[in-house]
């Protein structure tokens, strides 16, 4: 996947914020002409909303697979993160966005890890580089690559929390009928609500 420039990342973060504010005001979905053709490519994307300054999560929804042009997917994910995350009450007042930081994660396509023994996952997954998806049957749980860094998890904790998010037992990843996928992400975030946008370092601190 070709990496995005900071300018392109900033465009996506501003787009996500504007999409939420406009939707809360008018229930209309904005359309913007992107500054580059790369932003028209189909890519997976997640939009994360965090309260400022506590960094408490306020919503996070996206598309793991590249099924929509990045600009359109960002708008859809942003609106859903603000209004359709089942873990939180839906945003109703656009003024709330003045207290929320926006983070946009642009994903590489997920790749399944093929292993002979599930314990190999612990060697194949890199904290600070990989996000993971755990799937078993109809259950699926995704965690972005920045999450284990922020939470201080090791590889086993990362896998266990992905299982819990999928509604599975924490050790479900040890089962032969459980599939584990990895992906990478470029993450762009506001330093404060409506503030400067930077690319987030994902390496372990």
What does this protein look like?
The structure is a single chain. 27% of the residues lie in helices and 24% in strands. It is an alpha+beta fold and 205 residues long. It has 2 domains: 118 residues, Glycoprotein, Type 4 Pilin (2-Layer Sandwich); 73 residues, 2-Layer Sandwich (Dna Ligase, domain 1), CATH 3.30.1490.150. It has a 5-stranded antiparallel sheet with strand order 2-1-3-8-9, covered by helices on one side. Strands 4-7-5-6 form a 4-stranded antiparallel sheet. Helix 1 packs across helix 2. The longest helix has 21 residues. The protein is globular. It starts with 5 loop residues before the first helix and ends in a 6-residue tail after the last strand. The mean pLDDT is 96.
Secondary structure elements and their pairing?
Elements (H helix, E strand, L loop, with lengths): L5 H21 L17 E8 L5 E7 L6 H14 L16 E8 L3 E2 L8 H4 L6 E6 L2 E5 L2 H6 L3 H11 L13 E5 L1 E6 L6 E3 L6
Antiparallel strand pairs: 1-2, 1-3, 3-8, 4-7, 5-6, 5-7, 8-9
Helix pairs in contact: 1-2
Q: Count the domains.
A: 2
DSSP summary, beta strand count: 9
How large is the radius of gyration? 17 Å
Principal-axis shape: globular
CATH fourth-tier homologous superfamily of the largest domain: Hypothetical protein ph0010, domain 1
Oligomer class: single chain
The low-confidence runs, each spanning 5 or more residues with pLDDT under 50, are none
- Integer average pLDDT: 96
Distance between the termini: 25 Å
CATH fold assignment of the largest domain: Glycoprotein, Type 4 Pilin
Reported CATH architecture of the largest domain = 2-Layer Sandwich
CATH class of the largest domain: Alpha Beta
